[in-house]
Amino acid sequence: MQDLDTLESVSARLESVLNRLAARFRSMPESKLLGRLPDGRSRAAAGHELASLIAFAAQGVEDRSLLHAPTWRLLPFEGAFVVGDQIGVTGHDLNVACAEVLARGHASGASTAVWAPPGVRCDRTSVGTILTRVLTAADELSAVL
Predict the structure, then answer these.
(1) In this structure, how many other beta carbons lie within 10 angstroms of the beta carbon of residue 69?
(2) Exposed end of the chain (fewer CB within 10 Å): N or C?
(3) Cβ(47)–Cβ(35) below 8 Å
(4) Which residues touch 121 (CB under 8 Å, ≥6 apart)?
C-alpha cells in the first residue's frame, strides 16, 4: 500500500506533467497536431486519448461511492486545437477529485477503492494506482511528442 506522502508526490508530479503537456498542445501549430507519431496516431488523437483516460479516472474517483460502475461519460473529440484544453481541464478535475480523497488526512485515503477506468482489468482499484497509471500514460506521450 502506498503511503500518503508518496501519493501526494505522485499527484504533484502528475499535475506538473499534465500542465506542461496541455501548454505544449496549446502551442502546437496545426501541422504538428495533425502530424503522425511512430504508432500512426496523430498527435491530436494521442492527446485526446490521454484526456479521455484522465476524464475516466476522474469520474471513477468522483463516483467511488456508487454501488455499481458508473455510466462512463465519453470525452468528445472537438478538434485538434482543443486537445490542450481538454488535457488541462480533465487533469485539473482528476487532481481535485483525488485531493478530496487524500484530504481525509490519513493513509486510508491512499487505498480508497475507486472505479477503474474502462479498459482496466478490474472493477475497482486504488487512488494511487489510478494516479500512477495516468502519470505513466502522460510520461509516455511526452516522450514521443
Answers:
(1) 13
(2) N
(3) no
(4) none
- What amino acid occupies position 88? G
Q: Which of 73, 20, 72 has its CA nearest to residue 47? A: 20
Per-residue pLDDT band for 1 (boundaries 50, 70, 90) equals: very low
Residue 85 belongs to domain with CATH number: 1.20.120
The whole-number pLDDT of residue 121 equals: 81
Confidence (pLDDT) at 27 = 98
| Per-residue cell: 97 | 477529485
Residue 73 and residue 55 in contact, taking contact as beta carbons nearer than 8 Å: yes
Residue pLDDT, tens place only, 48-106: 999 999 999 999 999 999 999 999 999 999 999 999 999 999 999 999 998 888 777 54
Residue 115 three-state SS: strand
User: Number of structural domains, the chain?
Assistant: 1
How many CA atoms lie less than 13 Å away from 132 in the CB half-sphere? 11
Mean pLDDT taken over the chain: 91
Q: What is the mean pLDDT of residues 17-40?
A: 97
Residue written as cell 506533467?
17
Could you list the residue range(s) of the whole structural domain that residue 113 is in? 4-30+39-144
